[in-house]
């Protein structure tokens, strides 16, 4: 997704279409920032600093977004490989203590939230007459196999 979006013009990155969160630029930062927050809620600390959502006004390069996404994803993969079923049932207080949910819900939200916004970015790309990248689990697996 980031490779495709990196090739876009500023006008394309800032285009907004109905049914989406906002522009591609805004949606990427929101999505990746939320992933950092979900990871921090799951693991107890941020995988990157400062968190993207706490630094909304800052402009980010695609290289930085890519590195932050890799860091967050790697941290969450490592976390999910070692977390126990019992730990996934521990209730967390989220959103400054106003929402209660088991850790499992936060881990699932990490995945689901990203799927939703990646789909919205694909909608924007399609509206711009740009073929969106394949983002299904099969494509992820193929890319993972190539990386070893």
UniProtKB/TrEMBL annotation:
A divalent metal cation binds at residues 30, 113, 117. The keyword Zinc does not apply. It comes from the Bacteria. It holds the Pfam family DinB. Keywords: Metal-binding. GO terms for molecular function: metal ion binding. Belongs to the DinB family. This is DinB-like domain-containing protein. It comes from Dictyobacter aurantiacus.
